[in-house]
## 1
Amino acid sequence: MTQGRLQWFSATAPVAQAYENRRRLPMDTQELVRFLQAIPLLKGLTDHDLHILAMAAHRRVFQEGQRIYDQGEPGITCHLITRGRVKVFVASDEGHELAMRLLGPGELIGEMALFENLPRSASVVAVIPTETLELDQETLMRCLQRSPALSLSLLRAMSARLRHTTEEAEGLASLPVPERLLRRLQRLAEWSGTRVEDGIRIMPPMTQQELAALVGASRESINRALVKLRRQGVVRWDDGWIVLLDNAHDVLS
């Protein structure tokens, strides 16, 4: 994890070469175009534009726990998630995670740095095996210039993401930690949970530090909150996994 304050860099040749050395895999263009057609963000592009985008994109494969990019490094590409899940977070001067979002297929990450020509404001890591389509700045800008509808769609998506983050933060700020944690766990269960006999097993498995970053609390507070929720019978542990039990909805109601 990047520690210390954000550092300013230039997109030097060694950095660009590092991107080139990442694994590239072939992908059937027509299959990729069909995938792109289903993404709401790209609804403004014609089939011809989507074909150009598919030809320009590079498929990337990231293993669980592998960094996609780090806070503070140059922002020279963005990624469209096609499979898997990623965690977006920022770090304090001491290296602790301060904020976190989880994103999945159809989400675009890293585009802000391309517009601002600034270093990455956050780090992104794959939480399960993940595949992305990597687009460089020139390709993205060319697509935006060709399609005003895509530009509007991207602006709406960025605005909605910011509004959702603000509203969610305001809504959780006044709640005690156990209730904030329970609401986050419910959201994770809806987003990427797996049904088991008595509830929803939350995927991927998360440490108390990761839960603390997600909720905006200390690890110690999360530990106490988990103990309380277990005593209330709304969560349980299953070989390191958190299971949100079926009666959790009654507690939130």
## 2
Amino acid sequence: MIDVACWNAGKNDISWHFAIRHQVFVEEQGVMVFTDVDDRDSDPVTIHVVAAHGQRAAGTVRLYAVDENGLWKGDRLAVLPAHRSSIVGAQLVRYAVATAATAGGTVMDAHVQVQNTRFFERLGWSRSGDVTPYHGLPHQPMSIDLPGKTMTSNLRRGPTELHLPVPDSATSPLLVGA
């Protein structure tokens, strides 16, 4: 079995986080035109997470505290196509939930692309409103209570050398030479 590792991206691997998001949200889905980076990314309280499946960079998520009452938000969950049938997405969501819970969070909210609603429900999330447009696509607001959520042993620091698969049609300068 290939191991999946998740960790908070540091200065040496934050580029993996942004490259994966760019490949998924800009190049593949066309949700954003030039970049999916926004002001939230430069906020020091934002946590950028990377996941690896073996030695391959496989996915990302970002999370942050919304207020001092324990509300957290998870967003920009991105898993590369080759890893979508694996456990990478589930491990990223579990890692985000456990990270927010460990930081004292009480609830985490997310806007989930409609086709991923059942996936989140299987991970313990609940629908928390009506489907609404978010970045031009229908999203389901969802939430999860955080107390009692803890890290599991397979959610740890990833490999020191990662490889990002580059699709043949990639034109992004973020992915050239990766």
## 3
Amino acid sequence: MKKGIRNTAVLFTITWLSILLLACGNQATTPAAGAEDSKAATETTETTETTETTTAAEETNEGETRVFKDWTGHEVEVPVNPKRVIYHGEVTGDLLALGVVPVGILRQDGTVYDDQVAQAEDVGFPISVEKALALNPDLIIFSNSDETQYDQIAKVAPTVTFDSFGSIEDRMRILGDLLNKKQEAEDWITNHQKATEEMWKQLHENGLKEGETASVFTMYPGNRLFVMAGAGLPQLLYGKDGLKPTAEIQKVLDEDMGFVEISTEKLSEFAGDRIFILDPVTDDAKQSTKELLDSSIWKNLPAVKEGKVYRFNIVKASSDALSREWLLQELPKQMIQ
């Protein structure tokens, strides 16, 4: 699956039907005696000024448009300050991390952000033109390169394509630009990079060795085994200071692919020093996972023998910003014994 030529049916069969694809607060201080009232007054004044400035800016931008060049080359006239956004794709949590709650989404139950999108309309797959029209959007973000679908929904509202397989930093900056949330995007990236560095430091201090390799596997209905490479959890694992892909997985990455299907006989060729299992959603895929983990091929893998196997809910261990934040907390819980 290469960027720019993703087949829609394959992508969303893998991503949504099996949900294959797959994210510290500041400590309070007590003000010195006699300074609290002054500090509160200053904060109130600053907050009022900031709110007034923000409101004025939003009013100034109301109704204004600009031209935005999207992932697949369309030059689209979009609102400067969009209010009613439909996001159709895999990384809804990216928008939520920027403070934007879409009015319409491609729903995926069981995410770490379910409660935040409880009121959003499910626009379905393929995206329903009728449902989209009823939501009266002023912007549609479409994580696909299917021109036929694009032409249909672009008649509803300004529509831009978006590469949900890009790096999380690229995605956040593009969305920050598109949604008039540039500063929020930069703040999130800075905080995320710091939190990621701290997590890997913690793991290295607790037994993770430099150069260790990792593999991510999941089962798809029909007893099909997939290796995740450039999408979801591996994007975090193979980042700076993290684990390394095996040689076979590196070949997949070199071909700019998000995942690849393999036979169980090839497990040993792809298996790393540490193995991550993404537990599937459907009952038949769960049964296939159980059979795989009970097999002699699996039990003879070095990582399995050494107890270096970690299991994650496939929906929560996704690649969006909020799921990434969740993963930064969950990885140490599993890997530090």
